[in-house]
Fold:
Amino acid sequence: MLCAVLPASPQQRIQHDLKPNHTYPVECVLLVRPKMDTDTAHVCCLRSIYSWQGSPFVYLTVGSGESLEIRVNRWHCVNSPELRDSCVEVDTVSTPGTVWLTVHGISPQFGRAPWTSFYGLFGGAGATWTVSQDNAELQTVLTANLGQQQHASVAVLPDDLPATRQSFLASSRVHVEGSQVTWTYDKQAAQIRTTYQLLTRQVEDSRTGEDEQYVLSCVLPHQLMYLDEESRSKLVAQDGGGAYTSPRGQMLLIQGTQFTTVMPVVGVLPHMPYKVDDPVEQARLARFIEEELERLQRHDNYWEHVAADTYWLGKELERLATLVPIARGAGNADAANFIRNLIRSKLEEFFTSDDVNGWYYDRTWKTLIGYPTSFFSDTQISDHEFHWGYFVYAAATVAFGDPTWSEQWGPMVQLLIEDVACTDRNHQYFPFLRQFDVFEGHSWASGHANFHAGNNLESSSESMNFHTALIYWAYATNDDDMLSLGTYLYTTNTASIQKYWFNVDDDTWEPRFAARYAQAGMIWSNGATHTTWWTANEEEIFGINYLPIQPGSLYLGLRQEMVLRSYSNFIERNGEEAQVWAGIIWGFLAMGDTNAAVEIMERNLATYQVESGESRAFTFNFI
Structure:
């Protein structure tokens, strides 16, 4: 693990679409910091440290004539007598201005399995390095005098092969100073084409040639699957080298300042088709719709009996929205119109905003906060994607029924979308793609990410619900740019969910975790867990990555073996069929084995406990 003491200085703002590298909760092996003035402990000379996701490098800028200090921790060797004399190997001779560092260790949590890490410390051709020992701190200290050179870099190497060292030495002379991600939606070919571009600057003129061939970065498994032919040819695979173990599986080195993925677009349904041919089944569905309508009309003001905060209210709005096309398909226009008008009235109330309900713009954090709040959506800026997705989905349902409605209320819907997924990098009010991580291919839930394990995302399916809502809204308003955005998010997130939440190809999880589970409950910066925030109940650990079951949920069924393996693991761990979130679990199973789902549903349909975001009518029609 390589850790830096200081972030990039505020004066040196760097435009990166790729996020800064996460610091994972493990002991640092390398500690990068400026040379300290022992009299004043004044930290002045390290002007910036920066890196980016997928980068094996950390880039450093120091003051002219200042020294740079890198400390190699030996704490992990204290309880490993066999390593005390060979814990850290330092080579300052082989390459002028460069240190090749090898660190050995043993992992107690993995049965004392040995490990070895390789590093390159690049100070430039004119740099000189000295090595000393700080036995009080159990650290090997490497100090660089960079001369007039103000730039240095440190890299984690995948191996110590000569060819690897040579390529990293060349790459160290080109610093990456920015990154940008662009995508195009080719409707005709049904493809999303995404290009990851690195912006570079040459810091040493000791060689000639274009930057393109020297820059090194990495690709994650969900990107590797879909690299185009040109990008695939840039993968570094030399004598078995060029790969890292990461919390998302194996990362492969790739050369060049850009790479491109091409992902297939499978399409999203705005609603499930109404196809009930049997008169008996038609009557059952009609009854479910009538029961729902009766419940909604039981009170003069239905909304007084629904939770008011933006999460639970949002869930109810979308629950009702999924009923509208079912009622229309069943020939019950009165029910469809009543429900749509019920949704419309509540949306307009919230979009108008008052002292109790609505949205407030926080200028400090450049975000919308919905009131009443829940799940730290105000104090931690968490889960906005989940909350707002329900509102956008419901708004699209109203707009489909009344195209003129979006002319008046569309700007408010647009604000909700931009709060989470603004595409204007220079927007006055919102940052670029606040919650979506373009490198990892999924969103993060926490606004602060200040957890021991980094950031997290529990409900990948609620992220997908937001992406579905964007597509739905785009069609309702004939907005091609919104359609491109929603399709990019939906398609990319589908690939990452398959890989990181379901380990669909058995190549992304730690083997012992994969032997126990077929599905993660949460993804963290440093790996996956089979947990939720609030319960150890298996139905909810599995189901939190299915709900809400809605027409856009069909991505879960693209790999049917994934569904069957996950459901089998659920039954094994739960010990019985679903009881608490039964409709959600059945809906998921239906995408892998429809007949089995129908059989279970038929036995329990009249009496099962309906989850608050679902309805019997929708579950019956969906399955």
Summary: The longest helix spans residues 480-501. DSSP finds 16 helices and 24 strands in the chain. The radius of gyration is 27 Å.
